[in-house]
Amino acid sequence: MADEPPFASDADLGDPLRTAVQAIRAAPISDQVLVCVKEHVLQLVPQSSPPSLSRGRSSASLHRPYRTQGRWMQATGVALAAGLLLSFGLHSFPFVAPQLTFAEMRSTFAKQEWVLLKYEDGEEYWVSLRDGRRYLKEPSGRIQYFAPGIWQQYLPPSGPVDSPIAHWPSWGHITESRATPEEMRRIANWTPQSAWQFLMGEYEHIEKAKADRDHPYRVSKAVETVDGQELVRFDIIYTASERVTEGVVERDGQEIVAFIASSDGEGLYSQIWADPKTQLPVRGRKRTFSADGRGLTGGFVDGAYSFPESGPKEIYDLGVPRNAKIVRTYWGAGAAEYIDRPESDERDATP
Amino acid sequence: MFEWKLIVLQNAENVFRIAFRILGSEHDAEDVTQDVFFEAFGLAEPQEVRDWTGLLRRMATFRSIDCLRRRRPTSALDVNLPVDADPSSEVVAREMSERLREAISKLSRQQAVVFSLAYLESVSRDEIAESLGVSPASVSTALYKARKKLKSLFFETTQEITNG
After folding, report:
1. Are B105 and B116 in contact (CB under 8 A)?
2. What's the CA gap between A96 and B149, in Å, rounded?
């Protein structure tokens, strides 16, 4: 707090600005919330402490000295009191509303072995949070396996004719590629770099884009009761889905062709419901894409999360016929090479 | 003795209060508080920091202002008001708080930070100047401009509330 009287006087504000400032300053915060916040932040404290503060006193400091010995003693007393409050108060006062932040969910999520996300349309994602292996089973019967440097996919003999890879010559086979990240981007619009990103990629993008205020997304949080269970819901909302159109405008008495940016307004992009007790997601909802993958449809699809201790060992575990051959397609130096391999080679294809 | 836990115990409450005043939402304030401490825990040489209260206050203010500037006016907010307050004044106070936050979000980043530190946290001019690495005169100028702009923005948007 300031060492001298505040130089900003409320009298300089005038009404109604002064009233608003005073209203903000007067808004109370419950002790329970403050205790809860401290407890949460304490859980984030790194295990290893940095060296003593005294080491840095003779070198260049980032900020001027602040605490005198008396203040240190006072602060220590405050800390001890707060510690006692944490020890006893948490048990005495149950929290009114569930508390969970996205950071906590992310941290707990990363400690799991496997995550399984089953959408109601039949899509099934298996992701190993240890080594990044991923399996995707689609309603069409296509089954894919991703690992660093390996992409396998199985297309059932009667594949859908509207598939973007309908020309693929190996229905009923497992095709395997070893693509570079750049080449993978040609396959998918967005290539996740980790198991977490595979499931939570949009959120990661938003976290990283926080510094950019023009980013057209925001995340909001709410508490919601679902089937009698209080859950924390994280929403991703696109706020300015801008499009650019060509039009004619009048300027200085002349009609000129201009590119006009306009906004499609706000809309919900996806949601995650998390259990504040386990700090893990339990439900997910995402927008569905059009068949060509280029635009959002008006629909959503819901999914359920679970966290099994083990997952598939190979693509066959998800229903690919055991006699399906591996067809390797290597994208080296821009050239695709097709090599038929006997079934006995399948072991080599599994990392 | 340097201890992260002690720094948390000494400052978490204040960081949360700063974020809550600027954002008016416990959920957002909680996220900002965590972001601030995550950032602090990641500092390369934390032992060099000699004024944790000042540093965390500055980080909390900047992160909260950034969050406020990204927020759209339609965001859900959960301002707590005294239960024994006059209902009509509660509504006015709540509305005016939100209008002020919206107006602050329209200031430049530096003006918003200076205004928040000066008026919401009662930080002295010299401390703000040192915290931001600018001269005290620059702080005064930024605050003058912030007040002027806020008065203009705020006067327009609050007429409907105060009049009726």
Report:
1. no
2. 39
Q: Which two structure tokens, joined as six digits, stand for A267?
A: 């809309």
User: Is residue A5 in a domain?
Assistant: no
CA A13 to CA B141: how far, in whole Å? 15
ipTM of this complex prediction, to 2 decimal places: 0.81
The amino acid present at A311, given as its one-letter code, is G
Is A10 within the bounds of a domain?
no
Residues B81, A208: Cα–Cα separation, whole Å:
34
Report residue A135: phi and psi, to 5°.
-125, 140
Q: Among A1, A41, A63, whose Cβ lies nearest the Cβ of B8? A: A41
Of A12, A37, A101, the CB nearest to B16: A37
Gap from A91 CA to chain B (nearest CA, Å)? 18
Facing residues of A285 across strands? Answer: A271, A302
Q: Are residues A189 and A269 in the same domain?
A: yes
CA–CA distance, A16 with B156 (Å, rounded to integer): 10
Identify which of A278, A276, A284 has the alpha carbon closest to the alpha carbon of residue A300.
Answer: A284
Is B72–A56 a contact, with Cβ atoms under 8 angstroms apart? no
pLDDT by position in tens, chain B (length 164):
457 888 888 899 999 999 999 998 888 888 889 888 878 877 767 777 778 888 888 889 988 988 888 775 543 333 333 444 454 566 777 778 888 888 898 888 888 999 999 998 888 888 888 877 788 888 888 898 898 888 888 766 555 444 54
A307 domain-assigned: yes
Rg (CA), chain B: 17
Q: How far apart are CA A210 and CA B102, in angstroms?
A: 18
* Contact criterion met (CB < 8 Å) for B97 and A20: yes
Q: What integer pLDDT is reported at residue A250 of this predicted model?
A: 61
* Prior bond of A157 cis (ω within 30°): no
- Whether residue B93 lies within 8 A of chain A, CB to CB, comes out as yes
Domains and their CATH numbers in chain B: 1-72 (1.10.1740), 84-164 (1.10.10.10)
User: If you ran DSSP here, which 8-state letter would residue B29 be given?
Assistant: H
